[in-house]
Amino acid sequence: MRRKEKVLETVPGTGRSHPTVSIVVPTYKEAESLPLLLDRLIRLRADESMDLELLIMDDNSRDGTEELIASRNLPWVRLVVRTANRGLSPAVIDGLNLAKNEVVVVMDADLSHPPERIPDLLKALDEGHEFVIGSRYTKGASTDETWGVFRWLNSKVATLLARPFTRVSDPMSGFFAFRRTLLEQSDDLNPIGYKIGLELLVKCGVKRVADVPIHFAQRQKGESKLSFKEQLRYIQHLRRLFIYRFPNWAHLLQFLVVGGSGVVVNLVVLTSFSG
User: Fold this and answer.
1) Per-residue pLDDT at 254
2) How far are the Cα atoms of 49, 149, 235, 253, 268 from residue 232, in angstroms, in the given order?
3) 205 belongs to a structural domain
4) Residue 205 predicted with pLDDT over 50
5) What's the CATH code of the domain at 127?
6) For a designed S-S bond to 22, which of 70, 79, 101, 193 qualifies (C-beta 3.0 to 4.6 A apart)?
7) Segments in the chain forming alpha helices (H)
């Protein structure tokens, strides 16, 4: 990708500065959530004098999303309706390729990720970190009381399975930021399922990661897209990453996948209880 000169916007009266930001939000049937997200981003832009663009990567929802974005008529918001190769991770990758600004932030549309923490992600990048995660599990973080113990356990099991690749507190997080130039060192991005952050950590060879504590809120509108099918895709994704990171262990991995079928059963049970 072509490099872009660093651009900083200073917040009047504070001395704080922010790089230009591209926010990538993958959506599918999130028309009810998007007005709330837009309102909070409007306030963020005003409060922080932030130069940002919002890329809504929609998988042809046909739920009123196109009409909503047209009616709001915000010049910094771009809706891309995707009709081919649909899926959360491909949508994010398409958004990364379209992003124009220095820093890219990836987040969900359902307000489980607080937009107000974006300045904290940017601060961590400015301190020299390559990749910053909005974490549910680091010190000072919290999750909604209605999140449920089974969903929490499901997330913890998935995090444990990612340990061969990273020791960060929340590799499952869908809320993260990095400088767009990081993509120049990426190698064959080809994720399966919904854990694009883990793909980037591995394939971009990230070494310096920071956690920013967030409150992970329960979605206010719509329904969760988490399903058993997505859990199976996550197992497939881990298999690909293992072969990529440890190619000499590929044959052993085949054996371990068979022996680890009990983990899949556990994920089935946890998914069924987490709703």
Assistant:
1) 55
2) 42, 21, 5, 16, 9
3) yes
4) yes
5) 3.90.550.10
6) 101
7) 34-48, 65-72, 88-98, 118-126, 149-161, 196-203, 228-245, 250-259, 261-274
pLDDT tens, residue by residue, 88-139: 889 999 999 999 999 999 999 999 999 999 999 999 999 999 999 999 999 9
> For all residues of the chain together, what is the average pLDDT?
83
**Block residue for tokens 């917040």:** 11
Give domain status of residue 275, yes or no. no
Residue 4 CB partners (closer than 8 Å, separation 6+): 100, 101, 102, 180
Name the residue type at position 179: R
Q: What does the pLDDT look like over 160-189, one tens digit per residue?
A: 889 889 999 999 899 999 999 999 988 788
Which of the pair, 3 or 224, is modelled with greater confidence?
A: 224
How far apart (Å, rounded) are the C-alpha atoms in residues 156 and 117? Answer: 23
Q: What is the dihedral of CA 139, 179, 127, 117, to 10 degrees?
A: -40
List CB contacts of 68: < 8 A, sequence separation 6 or more.
31, 34, 35
For the four alpha carbons of 154, 158, 161 and 163, in that order, the dihedral sign comes to negative
Q: How far is CA 202 from CA 21, 96, 179, 188, 221, in A?
A: 23, 17, 16, 11, 32
Domain that holds residue 151: 8-221
Stretch (H or E) spanning 185: none
**Structural domain includes residue 263:** no
pLDDT for residue 88? 87
Residue 270 in any domain: the answer is no
Q: Is the confidence at residue 2, as pLDDT, over 50?
A: no
Separation CA 2–CA 166 (nearest Å): 29
Residue 100 CA to residue 230 CA, distance in Å, equals 30
Q: What is the largest CA-CA distance in the chain?
A: 61
Number of domains in the chain: 1
Q: Which of 220, 204, 234, 218 is nearest to 89 (CA)?
A: 234
